[in-house]
Design goal:
This protein is mainly α. It contains 1 helix and no strands. It is rod-shaped, with a radius of gyration of 44 Å.
Length: 104
């Protein structure tokens, strides 16, 4: 068996201390990276919420515009049908006068 000297023990102690410090630095670095990722995820969630709000606003505005266009189209349709109705009534009146009162 070999004997362990005080110098060997000191070297082992120094090696263990260096390894502990290296691991502590690595864990600190890893913890910082995790915190950065959390901040990035929170930022992405805020951006997503903002985008969802803007999409909902755009959807509402588009719905209102479509309703306005539909109302205008209904007004135009009623106007066209009214004009056609007046023309058909006049034409039927003329045809009725010619058929029923041909001499007048």
């Amino acid at each position: 068996m070999s004997t362990v000297t005080e110098n060997d023990l000191r070297e082992l102690k120094d090696l263990i201390s260096e390894l502990a410090q290296t691991q502590k630095k690595e864990f600190t670095s890893l913890n910082e990276k995790i915190n950065d990722m959390r901040v990035d995820i929170a930022t992405l969630k805020e951006g997503q919420n903002s985008l969802n709000i803007r999409l909902n606003e755009t959807k509402d505005a588009l719905g209102k515009r479509l309703d306005s266009v539909e109302n205008r189209l209904n007004t135009v349709t009623l106007g066209v049908f009214g004009i056609i109705g007046v023309l058909v009534t006049g034409l039927l009146t003329f045809v009725g006068k010619v058929v029923f009162f041909p001499n007048i």
